[in-house]
Specification:
By secondary structure, the protein is mostly helical. The chain has a domain of 82 residues: Histone, subunit A, CATH 1.10.20. It is built from five helices and four strands, in the order H-H-H-H-H-E-E-E-E. A two-stranded antiparallel ribbon has the order 1-2. A two-stranded antiparallel sheet has the order 3-4.
């Protein structure tokens, strides 16, 4: 049913959004006043953009793969892609991509740091208001139930029901 060509297609909605955003940016930049208008793009033009992007991605990937193999590695990294951009004569993309990569790495580090802080905070504070969870020295969790007004836990974490049925 679906061959390899279908799986390599770029999502049309993403292509359209990217093209429209760039055209709007250019229209604003070159407009003398604030009366710039949205630039319509027909379906064939969007297909041409998508096919061009796909060919560019294949060319860049193949060049980065060659650079990776020359270094006797099997995994392409960001530096391989940046070197490939220079090799295929798209040097103007290198600096903006380096800046984006650095920003991404900083965000990723802060996200990892936040996750580690949250994990450490939950390990340090196992008993919160109404929570009768106990963690014994070997790390086992005992009695992870929340007591309400009617149900009480004894000191071993065993539920004592005070309500009559």
């Amino acid at each position: 049913m679906g061959g390899p060509a279908e799986s390599e297609e770029l999502p049309q909605a993403n292509v359209k959004r990217t093209v429209k955003a760039k055209l709007a940016e250019l229209a604003k930049a070159y407009s003398d006043d604030e009366t710039w208008r949205d630039v319509p793009v027909n379906k064939e033009a969007l297909l041409a953009f998508a096919e061009s992007a796909k060919i560019f991605i294949h060319y860049l990937s193949a060049t980065a793969n060659d650079i990776c193999r020359e270094s006797r590695r099997q995994t392409i990294n960001a530096d391989d892609v940046l070197k490939a951009l220079e090799e295929i004569e798209f040097q103007e993309f290198v600096e903006p991509l380096k800046a984006s990569l650095e920003e991404y790495r900083k965000e990723n580090v802060s996200k990892k740091s936040d996750c580690k802080k949250k994990a450490a905070a939950t390990k340090r504070k196992p008993e919160e208001k109404g929570d009768t969870t106990k963690i014994i020295p070997n790390g086992e969790v005992v009695g992870s139930m929340v007591a309400d007004d009617e149900d009480k836990m004894d000191e071993d974490g065993i539920e004592e029901n005070s309500s009559e049925e």
